[in-house]
Amino acid sequence: MKKNIYSTKIKIIIMLFFIISLISIFTSLKISSDKSIFIKQVIFYIIGIMILFFSYKKKNDIFQYNLFLYISLNIILLILLFLGISINGSKCWIIIGPFSFQPSEFMKISLIITISKILGKYKNKKSFKSEFTLLIKIVFILLIPSVLTFLEPDTGVVIIYFIITIGMLLYRGLNKKWYLFTIFILSIILGSIAYLYFFNRELLLNILGNNIYYRLDRLLNWKDGSGYQLENSLITISSSGLLGFGFNNVPLYFPEASTDFIFTTFSSNFGFMGDIILFMIFIIFDLTILSIVKRKTKLEHRYFLVGVFIMICYQQIQNISMTIGLLPITGITLPFISYGGSSLLSYMFLFGLVLKISDEQFNYIN
Predict the structure, then answer these.
(1) Is the pLDDT assigned to residue 342 strictly greater than 70?
(2) What is the pLDDT of residues 303-314, one digit of tens each?
(3) Which site among 142, 151, 216, 341 is 20 to 30 Å from 107 CA-CA?
(4) What is the distance in angstroms between the CA of the first residue and the CA of the last residue of the chain?
(5) Distance between CA atoms of 49 and 11, rounded to whole angstroms?
(6) For residues 123, 315, 333 and 346, what is the CA-based torsion angle, rounded to 10 degrees?
(7) Contact status, residue 104 vs residue 145, Cβ threshold 8 Å
């Protein structure tokens, strides 16, 4: 019996991610204030593998529960705004003992599933009326969690919501008029925010809240490379050489060494050659997802896989780029590598579905 090479690749790479994550987090303990994160990550991976196995082997189609999942997560996001505990100025987490849960990480998964089901129903209908109805539904589905997550505030995740949605719509294809209309609307919105930011900050403050200046300053001033976190990251990566400073050797301190700046920690240990190997693993992983998309499968599953591919690729590019000063620091973690239970468990659930879809189409073809 033939083996599904795509599923095999994904399983092997997830195990490689497990090893890379634990090595990187262990070395980050040298400059981390929380020494328990290594054990916690091991626990998260064990639970995550169980969740992956559950979503992979579950006989019923989990896609049928998408509406329940979507509504439940939005209710939780709403409750967070009123009852959530503020950490670093954000109400993003539900805290249960020593562990925390970030609902917005699971909302990304729910959004991909919900949009893929909507797009799957419309199939190849591209009339103006049909596309108008489609876009109204998707904008509605997108805006509810986006507003709730923005108010936490967590701008980075909101950006992911939009990139996932736009990418899936571009893959589906729309009438050219909608692209022009979208560019026009975005130009008005961004132009209005820019005008208020530079000429009427008081009104902008009243509309978008007290922390809007901080968010916009991070986006507008990232290019100057200011801030010791980015400066130390750049120094560490650029001076790590071909093979790095050696295992468990991080010469400079920078915050979030196990989360946002985990790539800097890894690069410090293994240098340019280690970075190249990591990039190759990412590329093989991403191309494997894309290869599954190209095979015969249900339309809604194809959209789902495209959404997964877009989300993973964007987070990889954003996270690594912000550690070397190419993109603004938005708090986006590196999938499967950065410390964090919510993100890791959501990815495991997600890739259980990916493996399930891959096996179903493999068995169908063969």
Answers:
(1) yes
(2) 999 999 999 999
(3) 216
(4) 10
(5) 10
(6) 20
(7) yes
Q: Whose CA is closest to 173, among 117, 122, 110, 108? A: 122
**Cβ-based neighbours of 288, under 8 Å, separated by 6 or more:** 6, 9, 10, 13
Is residue 220 included in any domain, yes or no? no
Least confident of 83-92, 135-144, 235-244, 324-333: 83-92
Please tell me the pTM assigned to this model: 0.88
Is the separation of the CB atoms in 254 and 228 below 8 Å? yes
What pLDDT is recorded for position 224? 53
Measure the CA–CA gap between 349 and 179, rounded to whole angstroms.
33
State which amino acid sits at residue 161.
Answer: Y
What is the total count of domains within the chain?
1
Domain range for 85 is: 5-172+236-365
Distance CA 17, CA 281 (A): 9
Total Cβ atoms within 10 A of residue 137? 16
Distance CA 329, CA 40 (A): 25
- The answer to whether position 227 is within a domain reads no
* CA 355/CA 288 separation, integer angstroms: 11
Give the pLDDT score at 177: 77
What tokens does 31 get? Answer: 């400059």
By the 8 A CB rule, do 166 and 210 touch?
no
For residues 333 and 260, is the Cβ–Cβ distance under 8 A?
A: yes
Q: Which residues are within 8 A (CB) of 223 and not within 5 positions of it... i.e. 6 or more apart?
A: 325
Length of the chain as a residue count:
366
Q: With H, G, I as helix, E, B as strand and everything else as coil, classify residue 94.
A: strand
Q: Look at residue 103 and tell me if it is in a domain.
A: yes
| Residues 80 and 94: beta-carbon distance below 8 Å | yes
Q: Looking at the domain assignment, is residue 211 inside a domain?
A: no
Q: Please indicate whether residue 191 or residue 137 has the higher confidence score (pLDDT).
A: 137
The predicted structure's pLDDT at residue 18:
95
Which residues pair with residue 90 across a beta bridge? 87
